[in-house]
Amino acid sequence: MKPDRGGSYRRLPGRARLVFGLSTLWYASDHLLLVKRQGFGESYQRYYFRDIQSITSHRTDRDTLLWGIHIVVALLLAVPTALALIGGKPERWWWSIAAAIVLYSLVVHWWRGSTCSCRMRTILQEVELTPLRRERWLRRTFAIIDPLIRLSQGGLDQAALAEQLRSSGVVDDRTSSREEPSGKPPAPPPPIGRGNLVWHSIICYLFIIDATVSIGQVLMPNTFLTMMGAILALSEFGVVILTLTRQNSSLIGRALRPFTWTAFGVLCLAALGSWVAMFIRTLQTQGAVNPATLSGPKWYSVVYIVVYYSFGIIGLTLIRRHRFENEHQWLKLNT
Amino acid sequence: MKPACPKCRASLASDFNGAAEEFNCASCRSPIRISLYPALLRNLPEEVAGDAVALPDESSCFYHVGRKAVVLCGRCGRFLCSLCDIELGDQRLCPECISSGRKKGALTQLDRQRLRFDRIVLALAVYPMLLFYFTVLTAPAVIMLTFWFWNAPRSIVEPRPWRFILAAAIALLQIIGWVGLISWAIRTQGVA
Fold first, then answer.
1. Best of B16, B23, B40 to disrupt the A interface by mutation (most A CBs within 10 Å)?
2. What is the DSSP string of B35-93?
3. Which chain A residue's Cα is nearest to B5?
4. Predicted confidence (pLDDT) per residue in B150-163, tens digit
């Protein structure tokens, strides 16, 4: 027997980055091949078209997270790059290259579009098709493999398949399933746990700590407080982005969702305000300022402290009220 | 096995009516797109031990003499009972052919992983160029390994040997460079 050289596979759109590797999807006449390349090795998983039972997909919030990261990095790079370019400093090329890389990454992210997750079920297992993490790739891949799957499984049309699935009890009839048999209203969603609001609470506490640190910076500016302020600002961005990605899949109330988005807006405005204030200050002093104790004008610091304190306290009140309402509802349901 | 929401794992049985469509999960309310296929109606095949030979002139399985043959092996042509009949893609093979095919690398359908020798050789040709004096050792090694691994099983999806060829070309250029450098050094020393 001669070793089979393969070569009968065609590449499908989409890829997913792995640690030291890449995951891609290929297809042959009768099966789908998931290839995971790690280092110098390749592993293969085959899914025969005749065994595929269903393909499900849903949108994910990963693109929001990626947008957030890109925006934060772009904001962090914008001012030093502008300062280096205006000042004609020798390091302007390094800043420009870094800014160009971030800009390129931003354009690629925008071009690839929204993110999603795709799962495929066979008779034996359910797997995530990791390369199909963008809706654009999913649509194009689906247009190729869907006819192949249908062809290999007998080419049953949609209506006939729906009828067979309904009669076999795999799915219920839509019209009958929407109404409860006893006429009772549908059960309310389960109450939220304490864990669901942890990240919202962390945002509020971070805002309060940041405002307190800012008071210290106004009264006695020093390197330690400036560094602490910078670390807090970055942590706030991270926690807010994380909360935004998590809250869509949780059952938290309507009041808290806009709160997180407002927090994100406040952080972006504060970051922009800080950069502009520092930029003006640097231009005024022609760069002769200690960056460790660099801060904006006094009025800006006062507004910053008031907004951050108010936001933290309002947030904690909202969370407290939300918890109380939820526990109250739970008690009412139980009694 | 009923389809489940990919996000919250709740059963989707009452949320859609069978055909490919988009809807919101009743449990987590996230929008879901689903496509169902007739395989959903199929159950796992039951294990069959194979029927016993009923008549004296009836063909029996090569591996189980007492069992009735139901199919021929797609490679060796031996008679097989339903227990020995292994379905592999479009082929039906006997355990012996599967075992030998796996050893010889003839059945790509059974390959679960492969080492990419072409990538190793290319990396060995390219990365030492960062510290160029390593190439005096790696360039001959690349040429040797290219010949050594030329017939080794390649990637299933990218079987063309262009990485081997590229690596050998780079290594050849490195060797030419070294030869030129050494001859130049000898000539310069000779003149001095």
1. B40
2. EE-GGGGPPPPPP---PBP-STTS-B-SS-TTBBP-EE-TTT--EE-TTT-EEETTEEE
3. A56
4. 988 888 888 889 99
Is B159 in contact with A5 (Cβ distance < 8 A)?
A: yes
Q: Which of B1, B116, B154 faces A41 most closely, judged by CB atoms?
A: B116
In three-state secondary structure terms, B17 is coil
List all residues 6 or more positions away from A162 whose beta carbon is below 8 Å from its beta carbon. Answer: A171, B17, B18, B19
Q: Is residue A43 within 8 Å of B31, Cβ to Cβ?
A: no
B72 burial (CB, 10 Å; 0-12 / 13-18 / 19+) is middle
Q: Cβ contacts of residue B136 below 8 Å, gap of 6+?
A: B178
A82 φ/ψ sector (left φ>0, alpha ψ -120 to 50, else beta): alpha
**B36:A119 CB<8 A:** no
Chain B contact for A7 (CB, 8 A cutoff) = yes
- What is the chain A residue with the closest CA to B109? A46
Biggest distance spanned by C-alpha atoms of chain B: 98
Q: Residue A180 and residue B120: Cα distance in Å, rounded? A: 63
A65 with A264: CB under 8 angstroms?
no
Taking the CA of residue B141 and the nearest CA in chain A, the distance in Å comes to 18
Please report the ipTM that was assigned to this predicted complex: 0.77
Chain B residues in contact with A177 by the CB 8 A cut-off are 14-15
Give the HSE-up count for residue A21: Cα atoms under 13 Å, Cβ half-sphere. 16
Q: Cα–Cα distance between B19 and B35 in angstroms, integer?
A: 7
Q: What is the pLDDT of residues A263-309, one digit of tens each?
A: 888 888 888 877 777 777 777 766 555 555 555 667 778 888 888 88
Which residues make Cβ contacts (< 8 Å) with residue A171, sequence separation at least 6? A162, A165, B2, B3, B12, B13, B14, B16, B17, B18, B36
Cβ neighbors of B179 (< 8 A, separation 6 or more) are none
Q: What is the pTM of this model?
A: 0.62
A224: how many CB neighbours lie within 10 A of its CB? 11
